[in-house]
Amino acid sequence: MATNQLLNIKQKFTEEFLKCEVCFDENISTRRLPCKHNFCLSCLGKIADGKDKFSCPKCRATVIVPEGGVDQFPEDVPTRKMLDFAKSLHVAGDKSFFCEHHPNKPLDLYCKRDNTLICGTCVVKQHKGHDAETIEDAALEKRKYFQKMAYLQDEALHDIQNEISGLQKTRKYMETGANRVVTNVIKMAENIKMSVERRCDMLCDKIQKIQSVELYKLEQEQKNLREREDEVKTTKQRYLSLLKKPTAVEMMFSANSVEHLKTSFRDVPTCHEDVRMARIKWSKMDIDSQVKEMFGQLVIEKKDLQFL
């Protein structure tokens, strides 16, 4: 009896306060116009129909549509609160708790065969012969089932959280490992650079020492040649002085003094063999082979490559 009275109150309340005066449906989303009249958003959209202004369906006042459309009209907060209150009445008085075949009969039984709620009349008519039980017993079984499923979800959640934790640890390890690899690469590059610089200095020192030795030999050979050049010039002058003798007797008398000077161009010594080979050596020096010989000693330790 009390339930029916509650349903009647809800119905009258809805018809009086919560129905749109255009479509007469329950106001789901209410907007208030400047003239203080309320209409559902759907009806306002149809009335405005994309125009800049329209007339209020109730008082015919001119209403300017705000920029952005009828959605921009303010929501009617009091109507929304009354709508929420009406919805709260569903818990105690909604018709869904009464049999649709026998409206005055409450749904107090559960048909296991059809998996549905039924009333006491249904169990002897539409569901005659079906296995039925009270809602309390059915709810108890469902509660046990839900508890079991919740426990299984806990297990699944635990597994998922373990996987997430494992992935986080893996990510941390990867980030740390990557940083370690970068550090090792930089360190190895620095070691290689230092080793290359040392070997480069060694190669340059070797070339400079070879240069110093060869230059010394060249200077000595030049000195010897200069001395020989002076001797040849002196000998030449003595021969020329004999040619200037006025008589044959004087020339023949003096000839014995230069008899031992039989120097010819064949007697002039050529460059020392080492100096001549040095010219060839420096003109055709195989720098590549020198570099390979020197830098071939550059060995990267296997342990430095383990992180790769």
Outline of the structure:
It contains 8 helices and 7 strands. It has helices at residues 2-17, 41-48, 77-88, 90-93, 135-243, 248-255, 273-283, 287-295; strands at residues 30-32, 38-40, 53-55, 62-64, 109-111, 116-118, 132-134.
Dominant shape: elongated
The largest β sheet comes out as:
3 strands, antiparallel
Stretches where pLDDT is under 50 for at least 5 consecutive residues are 90-95, 299-308
Into which percent range does the helicity of residues fall?
Answer: 55-70%
Instruction: Give the N-to-C terminal Cα separation.
Output: 83 Å
Structural class: mainly alpha
Strand order of the largest sheet: 6-5-7
Number of helices: 8
Task: Estimate the mean pLDDT confidence.
Answer: 77
SSE run: HEEHEEHHEEEHHHH
Radius of gyration: 59 Å
- E-strand count: 7
Strand percentage: 5-15%
